[in-house]
TrEMBL record:
It comes from Verminephrobacter eiseniae (strain EF01-2). GO terms for biological process: phenylacetate catabolic process. NCBIfam families: PA_CoA_Oxy1 (TIGR02156). This is Phenylacetate-CoA oxygenase, PaaG subunit. InterPro entries: Aromatic_CoA_ox/epox, Ferritin-like, Ferritin-like_SF, PaaA, PaaA_PaaC. It comes from the Bacteria. The lineage of its organism: Bacteria, Pseudomonadati, Pseudomonadota, Betaproteobacteria, Burkholderiales. Pfam families: PaaA_PaaC. One of its GO terms (cellular component) is cytosol.
Amino acid sequence: RQMQRQEQFEARIAAGEFIEAKDWMPEHYRQTLLRQISQHAHSEIVGMLPEGNWITRAPTLKRKAILLAKVQDEGGHGLYLYAAAETLGSSRAQMLAALHSGRAKYSSIFNYPTLTWADMGTIGWLVDGAAIMNQVPLCRCSYAPYARAMVRICREESFHQRQGYDALLTMMRQGSDAQRAMVQDAVERWWWPSLMMFGPPDEQSPHSAQSMRWGIKRVSNDRLRQQFIDATVAQARVLGVTLPDPDLRWNPQRQQHDHGAIDWSEFWRVISGDGPCNQERLGARVQAWDDGAWVRAAALAHAAKHSPAPAQ
Ligand code: 3HC
């Protein structure tokens, strides 16, 4: 019976069908999606912190309003994704407990500090640009609730990337030499960590093979990384910044850019909790959870008072 359902499931995936929450699915498929979607949600929520640092320091009211809207979007993306993860049988409290205890991951990129205003434009351009590359294929993920959440998220991500690039163009074209240097410095600090967002090299990725067989991962880590590099080199040229990789050059045979080695020891160190800002980011999330305990208690007390008494 179990084998028959497993074979039917594999046949549905092979036929390109989408799986709904009520459909039968292998336990490993469920666990893989729960891991990925909850960590994606954590990434969105933790991702609000680096940018939140600059909402009160934005140079104009216009930039402040845009940054505020973007950070609010990230919060909304987190809620869509926690809701999608809950369809797999986990609760919000369980997922957040995994984050706060350090058991669950969130995107490595948010463990770096945002030192200047140019970091805001650079995060929009490179980090949201990489996120779009990684998230567009997820709109075709075989798990339908995740795919539907990603369609909405991708629409907002393109605004995030555009506003970042626009802010940098303003600094590069209308700014002072000091502001141009500020942009170049930010690009040098964010370039390599942005490439790491796509995950380890395919041959060092324990989940990729299975996730690709199940239609969860439609394009491999390395291929998405390469697409991002190829798309970004031209944008950097228009912007007038130099990407910090002396080995970056167009390879006519490959019709792609060759690039320098990525420091994977930094990547594994950062995702195991030893990045520049891991303690600060997780501390902020735990503090927010603790500070919000009274709100949760009040909401539960209110619900208990007003919910119908259980039938005798
Ligand atoms: N940061 C943190 N952990 C990472 C990582 C990264 N950049 N890349 C890989 N990892 C972790 C994986 O989670 C896995 O650890 P785990 O088993 O404890 O979960 C391990 O490294 C091995 O990596 P794999 O490639 O084998 O794992 P996956 O098949 O899950 O691929 C992934 C990694 C490509 C990140 C995939 O999980 C994915 O596509 N996730 C959904 C997209 C996502 O999370 N994007 C975050 C971007 S930031 C964001 O969305 C906010 C935006 O608005 C700016």
